[in-house]
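@channel anyone free to eyeball this complex?
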Amino acid sequence: MSSDFAISRFKHLSKLLLVHGHWCYTRLANMSLYFFYKNVAYVNLLFWYQFFCGFSGNTMTNYWILIFFNLLFTSAPPVIYGILDKDISAETLTRLPELYKSGQNSEAYLPSTFWLTMLDAFYQSLVCFFLPYFVYADSDIDLFSFGTPINTSALLIVLLHLVLESKTLTWIHAVILIGSGLFYFVFALIFSATCVTCNSPANPIGIMEKYMSDPVFYLVCVLTTIAALLPR
Amino acid sequence: MSNRKGPPGSQPFMKRPDNTAFKQQKLPAWTPTLKAETVLPFFFLSGVACITIGVLLIITAAGVQEMKVDYTEERDCADCYSLRLDRAKSTSDCACTVSFSLSEAFKGDVFMYYGLTNFYQNQRHYMVSRDDAQLVGRQYNLKNPSITCVPFDKYKNGTPIAPCGAIANSIFNDTLQLFYHSDKNTETPVPLLKTDITWFTDRTVKFQNPSPKDNLTAAFSGTARPFYWRKPVYQLSVEENNNGFVNEDLIVWMRQAAFPSFKKLYGRLNRTQEFNDGLPAGNYSVKISYNYPVGKFKGRKSVILSTVSWLGGQNNFLGIAYSTSGAITLVVAIILTVVHLKFRKKPLGLEEE
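replying in thread with the prediction:
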């Protein structure tokens, strides 16, 4: 007989239900909300750009980074969050069985929570796009150099959003989060140093060097969105 | 259930999961609770830091000087503008002059840009219309431009175009010459350097002439100039090393601008003789060989002179953004502190009673 859960003793049932059941519900709810948020925020960035490229469907980042953003750089953190996050400790949950009601009443995933998350994603993508836009408008910035600070800030925002959302952080979280961030930077640097004709029309050779004058700028993007998240 | 042998009450040891911290979900964890003691100092600190950085940035940006002259229809350029609306007369020359004056001297390195508005270099079809393999100097791609360049890849008789594509075809071809009028009758040409205006990686790696590099006419034999060009690519400049695909004006143009209104570097001031410290204040004029037809797409052309700081050209936005977010953070911090103190007073009040 196959089942999702199997327990060896009847006494384990209370722990299974009250503790793991509750955790399972909240983790799933928050993780799916986070996935929606992450994707809406990222794709909205491309959407804002359409106003400035004649709605021709152009993107300001090259395909590889676009794809890898979701595949490699931001996939591990939510999974770890979903496995390890504990919003209330095991002891509290067994002591207060009425907390299980929050799962039955679907308190973590109401329609209002969903729309609030969407609004947040919208606002963050607005900030993340227009701040660099106003900084670089009318200058001699080129297309893919414009995309670089946007992508980097988007990555940092998305990862830090997860930190804010988590109720518990372990060393595994730290490793995965920092690892994802570093992976992005390493990848982007290597990509821009080696790709001359591999990916027309992007070919981002030398773009990461634009970095140097811009660290100042990232702080604005991240800080503004965190200031908006904290009241949350 | 065959492994449930042994005395009743004893656990079947082999089925028990490992008692490691990970599998038992008992990893040491830190719960980030948002207490007032941690949040408020953070808000205050970041608010103050943001405002200081913002003020610094505003001061730096204020030190950058910029002069922009829109010459699309300025004085005698208006005749050239209407001439260029007529496609049949595109090969006839037209020159005009625009004057302006600098109220303050531009100290330091001065850069000259040309600006265009309403020109969508970031439109998708336009953007893919280039062949980077050809621009790197590969022989095969020189004679066989990629299909992304269609219809700017070959002439009707089959001659390949070098460089192919719509981007290269639409290169900005006005020539701008700056003159300084120290008094009414003397006119000194301002020396401009047209080299080193591109990224190092662009002119050394991304754009390379096909071999033989010392005889460009032979290297480009069998190819033809793009439709709208008057000279072939190996005759773009009078300077020695600035011809073929490594011509810096071409490289500057090929770097697609992010927005429809942009500026691109035309040249940098050669700081010799009287221009040692930059551009002195006074009257200037720009002699323009007006070739680029912007009337059809309602664009505007301008020449821009600017100094730069470590922050780049003139842009106040970053400084303002930092100051505003710093101010907002401080305001929020003050409000939260007030709320927090109000809540704190209640339990104390109850104890006194």
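from a first look: The two ends of chain B are 66 Å apart (CA to CA).
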